Amino acid sequence: MMEPRHFRTLFISDVHLGSKAAKADFLLDFLRHHEADTIVLVGDIVDGWRLKRSWYWPQVCNDVVQKLLRKARKGTRVVYIPGNHDEFLRDFPGMHFGGIEVVERMMHDGADGKKYLILHGDEFDVVVRNARLLAYLGDWAYDTAIRINILLAAVRRRLGMPYWSFSAWAKLQVKHAVNFIGEFERVVAEEARKNGADGVICGHIHHAIIQDMDGIRYINTGDWVESCTAVAEHEDGTFELITWRALASSVPALAAIEMHDEGELTPQAA
Q1: Taking every annotated instance into account, which residue ranges of this chain make up the domain Calcineurin-like phosphoesterase (predicted)?
Q2: pLDDT, tens digit, for every residue of 127-143?
């Protein structure tokens, strides 16, 4: 059993609890093996859109919530920044729920002395902001890709092959999606600059990366539907992108983690 790793701050987003595609068991395993002084939940932790369509809340979703509440009770500061899928929480800024505080956005003081604006990012997605119907249609198409993803994952598991995300791969093959990602990153980095921040930490587009953009450090935490990624801040202020590839209980501990120090998530080959 590997000892939990401890960080100054952990950033997690886009878990989509309530969706059948959510890898809640992977996140629960991750939380068992990682501790932090502060955990920032960067939106879309609960998928209110899907829960409205049909209720799906298995025990593992409760387990994730209980795990976060337990960490809060034991002294970890847990901050929840709502996204578009859990926008119902935006009605409760400043409220505390079981020790978890809700804020619309926040400024994070890094250990390196730099300031990081933290937000989910959906306010910079033109589709979500101006055309909710198109957003729901896109959500349906995304669900279809995720169903294919689940089927392929089951086949690969039977063949003893590592997890690989078809939906993440497919998204990056579409020129429009690649252009959207690049534009989203540019606009969000500019928002950080306007707020006097040195960097920005966000989620929303399910594309995990740490990169510098014209003097602004852009960090996207990824998701727990396709890539199973989180961003960790070390005590010296450096950031690490962590990919939780498999349940640690079923594989050797070192094989369960694929770390990318201040770089882009690189999907494993098929």
Answers
A1: 7-207
A2: 444 434 444 445 555 66
